[in-house]
Each structure stands twice: as structure tokens, then as C-alpha cells.
Design goal:
Layout (H helix, E strand, L loop, with lengths): L1 H12 L2 H20 L6 H21 L5 E2 H5 L8 H24 L3 H4 L4 H18 L5 H16 L17 H23 L2 H14 L13 H11 E3 L2 E2 L8 E2 L2 E3 H22 L12 H19 L8 H4 L5 H32 L4 H27 L10 E2 L5 H4 L4 H14 L1 H19 L2 H13 L4
Parallel strand pairs: 1-6
Antiparallel strand pairs: 2-5, 3-4
Length: 469
């Protein structure tokens, strides 16, 4: 029964081309990991591993979700299934969508990291990543967000030499860090299976919570023009909603936070970044051997990932029948994107200020980080919105615990713009002019498409064909 249920769950959640591509990609990563020689790049890889672990663990808790389809409530939940079989099937499919991301991101570094416990670390991370996504919806947002920030901070304590941190396995404390990851994976996996055993109850609680929550400080659009209302909505509060495309998986959530709180959080993180760079050492000429280089690369990379997640929410929560009756489609979407970019720049502002101050203080690497954050990230943000709207538009219509679409190669393609972004961000620190020119190309392409009436006409057609209402 378990195998039949698992086959059914996998086939209803993943398209066949996606499964084939995932298998090919996994074999490719295994092969390429054996061709990369072991090198002493511990500092850069340590920064990379710890920062990426902190970011993705926090995001999986803050914006996680269970792979439950709307149709499951009408069909799967009505069958006389074993709770154990159901939980195992959902967890394994969840692992295929989310947990395997960790293996793909770190597996090719197996030789370079040269760690005897790397396989244990990766399995523990994958299980934790998967499990946090399962337990997240059962936790109220006001509790989940601080927990996510605490989890990220705990991981980043590895930089301060704290041995019992999820990031310590990649940054100087192999055995204590691995032990921490194993314990974390054990606890979160147990919690995930417990949550899956009562998933129907949690879905109902989530639905009741989302429909009965007290509305505080509602935004009024009285007296505003349609365009003014767009800017008022996107500048007074920031949507932390996101389409999570990880290894082709799509997950959608929606949280709106007052702009002042987001700016305050960004300012604290930017201040931490400043203090960390100062602690690494005094200013020095730009060099590929600089100890400051990894930090200057990683911060824009993390901001790029964050902007990518935000870009995926720009269209998914739109109610087309309401939006496009107030303004012509091209006009509406242009102002929507401009307001979203302005919202993003408010979040990036503290980091831009810190990079400018660092560069003025003699830290040459900060110039590249400044270029990447000011030009590359905003330009890519718009292109990612446009790409998602045209290639794989999906509208969020249900509650937080259901996913609106099957995982497919088309959904996975929404992450393709990130390839160019990561290349430009990585090059920015060493070759700022190259990244600046590349960023301007992104901005020019984004502006041309945003101003194109024909493009938005085609987008509206795609939205209609994809079932937007």
C-alpha cells in the first residue's frame, strides 16, 4: 500500500519531464563532484556554506508549506489510508521538492570541502530543510518570523567561533557542528511527522486563523486615484510573499509587513554586516586573496536570493478581474512594477549606505558589492517578475496549506535569470565595471519590456489561459 500511495503522490505533484530532469541533474552533480580536485579554499567555502545554510533554513521556516493539493481534500483525505503511509509519502515527496535542493547546492563541492562528514551534514540539512517547511504552517506568523530570524542568527554564530551552530560544520568546528545538525534534523523530522499525522486539523486551523484574524491598521485608499492606490499599497507595507522555486518546486505564501518594520530589520542586518567586515580587518587594496572578499560577495548573493523570492509574488496574488478594470493592463502593470522596485530599494537602502560607508573608509571590495546591490539586484528583480508572469504564471487562490500547481520544468525555468545574476554579483567585487555594465543591460532590458504595451497584452493573455480570475 505504501508504494502505491507514494507513486500516486509523486505522480500528482511532479510532471514526468521534471522527474527525468531531476534524475539527470542529480547524476550530473554526482559525476562533477568527483572531477573537482580537493583544494584549500576553506575560507570562501566556509563563508558560502554557512551563509547559504542560514538563509535557506530561515526561509524554509518563514515561508514553508506542505505539499498538499486542493484536490487532496476532496479525494486523498477521504480514503481509509494508514497515517504512517500517508505521512511517509508526503514527507518523501516534500524531500524531493525541497530537501534535495541542499544536496544539489553542496554536492558538487564534495571534493573541495574535503570533509569526512560532509555526507552526514548534507543529509541532516536536507531533512531539516524539508521538515521546517512541513511544520511552518502550523506556527502563527508572529511566532514563525522571530523563530526564523533566531535560526539564521544561530547559524551565523559559527562566524564568531560558536561551536554548536548549524553552520559550524562548514566553518571550523566540524564535529560539534555535525552533531548539532544531526540533533536539529532529528528534532525537526520528528516534529514534521507529528504534524503530518494531523495535517487535516492543521489545515483547518490555518484556514480559521487566516479568515478570523483581527484586521489592524487597515490601509485606506479613499480619495486616491487608481495609480495612487497602487503606490500607497506597495510603499506603506511590503509583501513578503514569495513563490519558492527550489529544484523546480513551487510554494506560495503571503505576508504583508509594515514598511517601517522591514526597514528596521534591514538596518539591523546591515549594521551586523558592517560590524563583521570591520572585525575581519583593516582596509586593504582590492585583491583576490583578501579576507574581506567572501563577505562582499555573499551579502549581495543573499540579497539576490531574497529579491528573487519577492519577485515571484508580484503577480501570483493579483486579482486580474479587479486590477485590470481600473486601468489599462499596460498602465496597471507598469506602475505595479515601479512601485515594487521602489519597495525593494527601501529594503536594500541600509545595505547601500553601509557599502558606501565602507568604500569611503578604504574597503575597496565594497565598491563591487555596492554596484551589485544598487544595479544588478533591482534590474534582475524586474526581469524575474516579467519572466514569471510570461513563462509560468500561477495565481494563489486558496489557503496557505495548499499548493496551486504541479511541479514542472516550466516552473523550474523561473529560476533561470538567477544564473546571470549570480555570475554578475560574483564578478562585481573583483571587476566592478563589468558588473556595472552587465547590471545596466539588465536594467535596460527590464525597462524596455516594462514599457512595452505589446508585451503586457501577451502577459494578460497568458494569465487568462493560466486560469487567473
Amino acid at each position: 500500500m505504501l508504494l502505491s500511495l507514494l507513486k500516486f503522490v509523486v505522480r500528482t505533484r511532479f510532471s514526468r519531464p521534471f522527474l527525468i530532469f531531476l534524475a539527470i541533474l542529480f547524476v550530473y552533480y554526482i559525476g562533477i563532484s568527483r572531477t573537482i580536485s580537493s583544494r584549500s579554499e576553506g575560507l570562501i567555502l566556509g563563508y558560502y556554506g554557512t551563509a547559504i545554510v542560514a538563509f535557506f533554513l530561515a526561509m524554509s521556516l518563514a515561508a514553508g508549506g506542505v505539499m498538499i493539493l486542493k484536490s487532496d481534500r476532496d479525494y486523498l483525505f477521504t480514503l481509509p489510508l494508514s497515517t504512517r503511509d500517508f505521512s511517509v509519502s508526503i514527507f518523501l515527496s516534500q524531500f524531493m521538492a525541497f530537501g534535495i535542493t541542499i544536496l544539489l547546492m553542496f554536492g558538487y563541492l564534495y571534493q573541495s570541502l574535503d570533509s569526512p562528514l560532509l555526507l552526514v551534514d548534507l543529509v541532516a540539512l536536507a531533512l531539516t530543510f524539508t521538515s521546517l517547511g512541513v511544520v511552518a504552517p502550523a506556527i502563527a506568523a508572529k511566532v514563525r518570523i522571530p523563530l526564523s530570524a533566531g535560526l539564521a542568527l544561530w547559524t551565523l554564530l559559527a562566524f564568531a567561533g560558536f561551536p554548536f551552530s548549524p553552520g559550524s560544520a562548514f566553518y571550523g568546528n566540524l564535529y560539534s557542528g555535525t552533531a548539532t545538525l544531526v540533533v536539529l534534523a532529528t528534532v525537526t523530522t520528528a516534529a514534521a511527522f507529528k504534524g503530518l499525522s494531523r495535517i487535516e486539523l492543521d489545515m483547518m486551523k490555518s484556514l480559521v486563523r487566516s479568515t478570523s484574524t483581527e484586521v489592524k491598521s487597515p490601509i485606506s485608499y479613499a480619495g486616491k486615484t487608481p495609480i495612487g492606490a497602487i503606490y500607497s499599497m506597495n510603499l506603506s507595507s511590503i509583501s513578503l510573499a514569495g513563490r519558492m522555486n527550489m529544484a523546480g518546486a513551487s510554494r506560495y505564501v503571503s505576508r504583508r509587513v509594515k514598511t517601517r518594520w522591514v526597514i528596521a530589520a534591514a538596518s539591523i542586518l546591515a549594521g551586523t554586516y558592517y560590524a563583521f567586515v570591520i572585525r575581519l580587518g583593516p582596509p586593504q587594496p582590492l585583491s583576490t586573496n583578501s579576507n574581506l572578499l567572501p563577505a562582499s560577495i555573499l551579502v549581495p548573493i543573499v540579497l539576490s536570493f531574497f529579491a528573487f523570492f519577492l519577485s515571484q509574488s508580484a503577480i501570483t496574488n493579483e486579482r486580474v478581474w479587479l486590477s485590470l478594470t481600473s486601468l489599462p493592463p499596460a498602465t496597471y502593470f507598469r506602475h505595479l512594477i515601479i512601485s515594487r522596485v521602489a519597495s525593494l530599494l527601501l529594503m536594500l537602502g541600509p545595505f547601500l549606505v553601509v557599502d558606501a560607508v565602507l568604500y569611503g573608509s578604504g574597503y575597496a571590495e565594497a565598491l563591487g558589492a555596492l554596484v551589485a546591490t544598487a544595479v544588478v539586484v533591482p534590474g534582475s528583480f524586474v526581469l524575474e517578475i516579467l519572466w514569471a508572469a510570461y513563462i509560468a504564471p500561477i495565481q494563489v487562490k486558496g489557503d496557505d496549506l495548499t499548493m496551486p500547481a504541479q511541479f514542472s520544468l516550466r516552473q523550474m525555468s523561473t529560476a533561470l535569470p538567477m544564473v546571470a545574476v549570480l555570475v554578475l554579483v560574483s564578478a562585481a567585487v573583483v571587476f566592478p565595471p563589468v558588473a556595472f555594465i552587465g547590471g545596466l543591460v539588465l536594467v535596460a532590458a527590464a525597462a524596455a519590456l516594462t514599457m512595452s504595451t505589446g508585451f503586457w497584452t501577451r502577459v494578460v493573455t497568458r494569465l487568462t489561459e493560466s486560469g487567473f480570475i
